[in-house]
Amino acid sequence: MGGLRLLALVVVTVAVVHQWAVGGGGVMGNFVFEVENKFKAGGERERTLSALKQHDARRHGRMMASIDLELGGNGHPSATGLYFTKVGLGTPTDEYYVQVDTGSDLLWVNCAGCSRCPTKSDLGIKLTLFDPSKSSTSGEIACSDNFCRTTYNNRYPSCSPGVRCEYVVTYGDGSSTSGYFVRDIIQLNQASGNLKTAPLNSSVIFGCGNRQSGDLGSSTDAAVDGILGFGQANSSLLSQLAAAGNVRKEFAHCLDVVKGGGIFAIGDVVSPKVKTTPMVPNMPHYNVILEEVEVGGNPLDLPTSLLGTGDERGTIIDSGTTLAYLPPMLYDLVLSQILDRQPGLKMHTVEEQFSCFQFGKNVDDAFPTVTFKFKGSLSLTVYPHEYLFQIREDVWCIGWQNGGLQNHDGRQMILLGDLVLSNKLVVYDVQNQTIGWTDFNCSSSIKLRDEKSGAEYSIGGHNLLSSAFNLTVGRIFMFLPVLFALLQSFSAF
Ligand SMILES: *[C@@H]1O[C@H](CO)[C@@H](O)[C@H](O)[C@H]1NC(C)=O
Ligand SMILES: *[C@@H]1O[C@H](CO)[C@@H](O)[C@H](O)[C@H]1NC(C)=O
Ligand SMILES: *[C@@H]1O[C@H](CO)[C@@H](O)[C@H](O)[C@H]1NC(C)=O
Ligand SMILES: *[C@@H]1O[C@H](CO)[C@@H](O)[C@H](O)[C@H]1NC(C)=O
Ligand SMILES: *[C@@H]1O[C@H](CO)[C@@H](O)[C@H](O)[C@H]1NC(C)=O
């Protein structure tokens, strides 16, 4: 496998799969069922929207803060390949480094007593196991708790008093994390002035990981304490903070692939203004509607079957994915248009995965740009130096990956990760169900409206990893598509 490892996490299927193993005298049965998207029906959707609006109205006048999440890491495939932030948890508060991932929902950290959790990281950050027994503010979530009941759609098996709410998340490379939910205080930084912050405490429910497998386990490469899912499910930190009246359901990121780190902020972004496209409603991910693809300014002749129709259409926007995955037909068209410009290239395969070639000249002069055009005339242009990544001097590899993600209908979805999202300010307005972006300098700052004071405060870029890290040279990190599952397992008693 060489340098390949799990890099980021994304949900492959559009439905959440609850996989329950129910045991008695050992694991006896194991059945899997797909939960239909809860908001699939049109009527449901309207109800959800009006519920959201009511929620907004109730919320009106409450004190909502802007949160500054310091970023570290670098989404470049031959750097750390991931972005992470730092949060405080528990009393007394300790700091935890968690990967930021808009493709999943849960916040979880490795916990004390964990078997096979990483204790050292090649990133040079200090890893810490969260210990609920040492935090005076922590409490376990019982299976009868509202959070557990809604997360499992009221189908937690054999829930009885004293049974705690457990979970398992399985990722595409077969690695997984499992544990149980706890409630404790999270400490975040809220904007209190221009480029100034003050602590903000909020009570949240998150996963306490006590069993890891695969690359989430003992590997020290780019190991972090856990994952912070920025999805829109009610279980996400964003939804919990919004439900507590702490924030508006809106966040933005600017991932700096040049220097590493960047901006990650929760709140109402007032500047820069970004052009937006609607999110496809009622999807578990951030999906937008792609209408056209251009290579070097020439539109590709794409069949409607590829782009889909109505709500079936969708391209997933995910910060937690390093590269970009295109269905085979689109991949072939894009690649042939790109490579036609340089007929003499000799391709070779690196890490059994990437198509690479020797090239000594400026790639931006030699290759065409690729532009994705979305509903509402929002476009996203990817430059050659972004979709090609350099692994050695004069050796470049193609970042586009062949193979889309399949949704539950077997339709191929396009997945756009850091490869195309870097060096742009991407604004996810979950409340208004839009997503937008603009080219941006991630070392500069953005302005958010602070509802407490009515003031506009700037939040700037950070880099938690300014010093060099010790990753194997030439190591290539790669996102592997995954199946996200909430799993309930019972051992015999
Ligand atoms: C935030 O929570 C921590 C841990 O419980 C506590 O020590 C601190 O005093 C709290 N800070 C504020 C501003 O409430
Ligand atoms: C990287 O490795 C060098 C030499 O082994 C060591 O001195 C240094 O502290 C390491 N840096 C980090 C960030 O771990
Ligand atoms: C999610 O939260 C919203 C707002 O609090 C609520 O109206 C809705 O019923 C919740 N959805 C589920 C599935 O629990
Ligand atoms: C969200 O939608 C509301 C109602 O349509 C609108 O008034 C408001 O300006 C929108 N907010 C943003 C940030 O676009
Ligand atoms: C980006 O912003 C930083 C901080 O304001 C500035 O120092 C730098 O020159 C800017 N870079 C570019 C390319 O404009």
UniProtKB/TrEMBL annotation:
Residues 83-438 form the Peptidase A1 domain. The keyword Membrane does not apply. Keywords: Aspartyl protease, Glycoprotein, Hydrolase, Protease, Signal. It comes from Citrus clementina (Clementine). One of its GO terms (biological process) is proteolysis. Belongs to the peptidase A1 family. Pfam families: TAXi_C, TAXi_N. Gene3D superfamilies: Acid Proteases. InterPro entries: Aspartic_peptidase_A1, Pepsin-like_plant, PEPTIDASE_A1, Peptidase_aspartic_dom_sf, TAXi_C, TAXi_N. The keyword Mitochondrion does not apply. Residues 1-19 form the signal peptide. This is Peptidase A1 domain-containing protein. Transmembrane segments: none annotated.
